[in-house]
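Q: Hi! First time doing this. I have a protein sequence and I read that you can turn it into a structure. Is that right? Here it is:
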Amino acid sequence: MQAQILIISMLSVITLSGCQTTAQQFNGKSGYEIVSQSKQTTTLKYTLSANADQAKIQAKLQSACQQVLGSDKTYMINILGSNEVNTQANNPSAQGVNIGQTRATFGLSNTPSLSGADDYASRQGLETQPRTLNVILYTCSA
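A: Yes, that's right. Below is the predicted 3D structure, encoded as structure tokens:
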């Protein structure tokens, strides 16, 4: 029984870590967009969290190149430019009260019920997003 739990937990960790470096098309918040494309070269714009480490960024850029140009090669990446975007300025919170230089949020919390209804803190945790995003413009070539 313990061996089965160990195997399942190891497989879930491997699956989750593999998904973090897979590139996804732009969904309105993050992902890659094709700017221009030819047979062996493409220019992409990738939007991702600003606090990601360099190895994950490189893996995501490479993965996007492989999805667009074909997954059989490792492509040469040339970064043309990078821009940091503040998401809080574009999307101010509907909740909260300005107190000095901070934004305080207040809400009523209910205790978890037997029906499994989520409380205020759970909803707020699911709605979190990074404050800054990096938009990277780059080319991929064979």
